Amino acid sequence: MALLVTLGLLMAGICPAILCQQEGTLGRNTELQEDWKNGTKVDSLTMASINTDFAFSLYKELVLKNPDKNIVFSPFSISFALAFLSLGASSNTMEEILEGLKFNLTETPEADIHRGFGHLLHMLSQPEDQVQISTGSAIFVEKHLRILAEFKEKARALYQAEASLADFQQPHETKKLINDYVSKQTQGKIKELISDLDIQTVMVLVNYIFFKGKWEMAFDPLDTFESEFHLDNKTTVMVPMMNIEDLTTPSFRDEELSCSVVELKYTGNASALFILPDEGKMQQLEASLQPETLRRWKDSLKPRLINKLYLPKFCISTDYSLENILPQLGIREVFSTLADLSGITGDKNLMVSQVVHKAVLDVAETGTEAAAATGVSISFRSRKWLPMTVYLDRPFLMIVFDTNTQIALFMAKITNPKRRTEKMALCVAFVLLVAVFCPAVLCQPDGTLGKETTAQEDQNNGTQVDSLNLASINTDFAFSLYKELALKNPDKNIVFSPFSISFALAVLSLGASSNTLKEILRGLKFNLTETPEADIHRGFGHLLHMLSQPGDQVKISTGSAIFVEKRLPILAEFKEKARALYQAEASSTDFQQPHEAKKLINDYVSKNTHGKIKELISDLDDSALMVLVNYIYFKGKWKTPFDPDSTFESDFYLDNNRTVRVPMMKLKFLTTPYFRDEELSCSVVELKYTGNASALFILPDEGKMQQLEASLQPETLRKWKKSLRPRMIDELRLPKFSISTDDSMEGILSKLGIREVFSSQADLSGITGDKDLMVSKVN
Question: Which part of the chain is the Serpin domain (predicted)?
Answer without folding.
Answer: 56-417, 479-779
